Amino acid sequence: MLALALSASVAAHAQLEPKHVRLDNPDNAPAPVHPLPHDRQVKWMETEFYAFFHYGMDTFTGEEWGFGNTPKATYQPTEKPDPAQWLQTAKDAGMRGGIAVVKHHDGFCLWPTKTTDYCVSGDDTPAGFNVAKAFADAAKGLGMKYGFYVSPWDRSTALYGTDRYVTEMFLKQCQELTTYGNDQFEMWFDGANGGNGHYGGQAPASRSIDRATYYDVPNLRYMVHKSNPNCVLWGVGGEARWIGNEAGYAGTTNWCIDNRLEGRDQPTAASGNENGWIWLPGESDAKSSGGWFWGEKKDSYTAPNTLFKMYLETVGRNATFILNLPPAKNGKLRDQLVSNMHQLGELLRTRLGNDFATTANGATIVADETTAARTGNYAPENILDNDSTNYYATDDNTTQADITIDLGQQRSIHYVVLQEYIRLGQRVKAFKIQTSNDLQAWADFGGSVPTTTIGYKRIIPQSGDTGNYGNGVNARYVRVRILDCKSVPVISNIGVY
Ligand code: FUL
Prior knowledge:
This protein is an alpha/beta fold. Helices cover 22% and strands 21% of the residues.
């Protein structure tokens, strides 16, 4: 009897063993450091730099937050909105995608939704035009990633604040938008809820909700991911966090992990949390003009050099960068903005377009002084090959590495770019960059900028100053010293520009 009971319990235990644990590791891969990103979050980080397009009722009122009772007829584009022009401009600026605001807090929808009359009709006139559909089509034509901003807060409807708003309007609106393409990369869910609004003219005129629970995020996620598996739900959706400011900078220390479901108003927004338990990477949103929406009094534009500085302080600090380009009343971006974006693209191409540290440009890895490279396909050469799917890793039991690159000739160096293989978790806690011409005398690179985290991407300017291109430093060798790391360092790329 005892023997029988024992064997029954062994059998039950054997069944419970997790099936995904591999008992052997034939590839000798380094162990992951949790939490890990979802595949869609990695693809999203690889988008790096993309546009926001705030266009809608506020374009015609000059406001930033419509109250929800502006008459429909106020939305009067003087020409048919031209999303292909928006996205082509973004592409010229070096961006890889864009997000169209198709419903802002005022509740007016730029596609013919079945959930409310407060929307465009979907006919072929400028005022009836289905902007959401045209936007998705234009993006597909231009090879740009695309997604939509759908404001959860809706100041137009009497239902706001009740469960009916969530099930009959908000979720349905998001569902309708998923039908415009199954390859959307991000849906943007703003956390703003300023309380008061028109709310269909019904009392109470001020409503408050708990944004952590009100919007039924589990069902929202399920519904969006069913048709759009690569769509990251930003903000309220809990798959990427706000960086905590709208000025275009992330923390110099910036972890892709954190401890909370939504980044707004949190002290760790800019830096993430080294000990966080969920993957929640940062996105930095910023304007390129006087407002989120175009307006006569807001028709002034930020200089390309300032935008380049923002790029270095966002993409260069392990965050994505979403830069707003507001179409004007004719449904097009102004000439001045188009020209600024072209200049920004030129800056990115000339300053960060030719990587000296590639095999193709004659670079080699000359030394790995302190640590043995891992056996298997983890050679330091993986750092020079422009392939983001492989990486260099050290043997187990070390959290340090020295990686020295011979550029093959002296180069004028302005920036060093570092990337971890984040599919195995974000790891590096401290590093240092140095340059040399003889492998004997080494000079520190990067001024006094803190060199703590790397993550998906880090860009270190030669003097540490993101606002000053400078003359560069002339050197043949670049050495990256990983000084502290959560586990074995895994480095996919080092770029030298
Ligand atoms: C904010 C909104 O309230 C602004 O109007 C704008 O859309 C910005 C991107 O997010 O929270």
